[in-house]
Amino acid sequence: MSKSRFVLDKFAKVIEQGLLSYKDLSDEVINILKSKRDEIVFRMKLTSKEEFDILNKRVENLEKKLDQKKKNKPLKKIKRAMK
Length: 83
Prior knowledge:
The protein is mainly α. It has one domain (2-72). The chain is 75% helix and 0% strand. It has helices at 2-16, 22-44, 49-72.
């Protein structure tokens, strides 16, 4: 019950602050979920904080590279068959 209350409180704060656009709301939800994920990983003590930060930066860099590749992907020309 307390965990669901935490999420509801976060949503209530977002609405109170006036973040009503979909983009702002989705960014805020993603940030909340990322912070909860980080908190769970720290509690499980899978990695040290330094290792986690390094791995997190690597993942962010890979995501940026993927986004750039998607944007720069050239369109393939369609070849027509001769009649």
